[in-house]
UniProtKB/TrEMBL annotation:
Coiled coil: none annotated. It holds the Pfam family Cas_Cas1. PANTHER family: CRISPR-ASSOCIATED ENDONUCLEASE CAS1 1 (PTHR34353). Its cofactor is Mg(2+); Mn(2+). It comes from Desulfofundulus kuznetsovii (strain DSM 6115 / VKM B-1805 / 17). This is CRISPR-associated endonuclease Cas1. Mn(2+) binds at E171, H236, E251. NCBIfam families: cas1. The lineage of its organism: Bacteria, Bacillati, Bacillota, Clostridia, Eubacteriales. GO terms for biological process: defense response to virus; maintenance of CRISPR repeat elements.
């Protein structure tokens, strides 16, 4: 059990010896050794957690995340000692003004576009013999994404500020094609007219936004463990309270983790219940289960199979190494 996900109202978390004790309505429903947990995510109101649990989590390196009912992270508890090396953060700040920031920004978008294409190819291969029209339409989208990659490669500049408008232009036009392909895949299963961000009240966008919130939590933790500053990004602009580097690194993992989990859920007949234009508690629990399963799925990385959640940690360390001048950064690419 690498991650404990709490979605029930009224749950209490306590400590007994070296175990985390989860209670509902005063009854013990789960006891887990702290050493078997890597993260606790609390995604419900009315949850209580004892100071003993917080201290034990800090000492065992267990991160505690808090999400709103729409999946937006609003708090994180970690040990103050998890700040990594000073050199990494110094180089991260300096990289914004030189070619490293531009290089990394292009890598993040390159990874996103390639993984979007790979996800479309993944779904297309199962429809090659059953729906040739849809298969050809999906192949056409993949060609658009490949053209976008060529445009991205040709973008030049001395730093990210000079090139950001061009990068976002390429990424935005590719997104229209990609989400159009997702709409084709979901046709006949659930209504989806296009991508909307925070506040979306339709089932697909609400599920995607909730899944991205879970992914942010994973990447935020990995970024901090790698000694990086989560608020000092490159592709995403600076803004108080905006974890720009977390958003940057999330780009290459969105299609492989959340999009794949959500599209598979709906195309296999899954349904979502909405309450007051938000996901119902049962739907939040189901989406969390699907995304966490995907994080525990395996992908190739450096020639070996690893869990996706492990790859997120390795990719964060690779980013830190690149900034320190100790290695090359390459985007994570999923298989299809």
């Amino acid at each position: 059990m690498p991650e404990l996900f709490i979605t029930e109202y009224g749950v209490s978390l306590g400590k007994k010896s070296e175990r985390l004790v989860v209670k509902e309505k005063g009854q013990v429903v789960e006891e887990v050794p702290f050493r078997d947990i890597t993260q606790i995510t609390i995604a419900s109101s009315g949850v209580s957690i004892s100071a003993d649990v917080i201290r034990e989590c800090v000492e065992c390196g267990v991160q505690i995340n808090f999400l709103t009912s729409t999946g937006k992270p609003y708090a994180r508890l970690t040990a103050p000692s998890l700040t990594g090396t000073v050199i990494t953060r110094r180089e991260q700040i300096l990289a914004y003004r030189d070619g490293r920031g531009l290089y990394l920004s292009k890598c993040f978008v390159e990874g996103k576009l390639k993984n979007q294409a790979n996800l479309i190819k993944y779904f297309a291969k199962y429809r090659r013999n059953t729906d040739t029209v849809l298969y050809e339409d999906l192949q056409a989208v993949c060609r658009h994404l490949e053209n976008a990659l060529q445009e991205l490669e040709e973008i030049k500049g001395d730093n990210i500020d000079e090139a950001r408008p061009q990068i976002f232009s390429v990424e935005g036009r590719a997104a229209l094609q990609y989400w159009g392909a997702v709409a084709l895949l979901l046709r006949g299963h659930v209504e989806f007219t296009g991508r909307e961000h925070r506040g979306a009240a339709d089932p697909v966008n609400a599920a995607l936004n909730y899944g991205y919130g879970i992914l942010y939590g994973q990447i935020w933790g990995a970024v901090m463990l790698a000694g990086l500053e989560p608020f000092a990004g490159f592709l995403h602009t600076d803004r108080p309270g905006k974890p720009s580097l977390v958003l940057d690194l999330t780009e290459e993992f969105r299609p492989a983790v959340v999009d794949r989990a959500i599209v598979s859920f709906f195309t296999r007949g899954g349904t979502i219940a909405m309450e007051d234009e938000k996901l119902s508690q049962e739907s939040r629990r189901e989406i969390a289960r699907r995304v966490l399963e995907r994080l525990d799925g395996e992908e190739n990385y450096d020639g070996k199979k690893h869990k996706v959640r492990t790859i997120i940690q390795m990719q964060s360390r690779r980013l830190a190494s690149y900034l320190r001048g100790e290695g090359k950064y390459r985007p994570f690419l999923t298989g299809w």
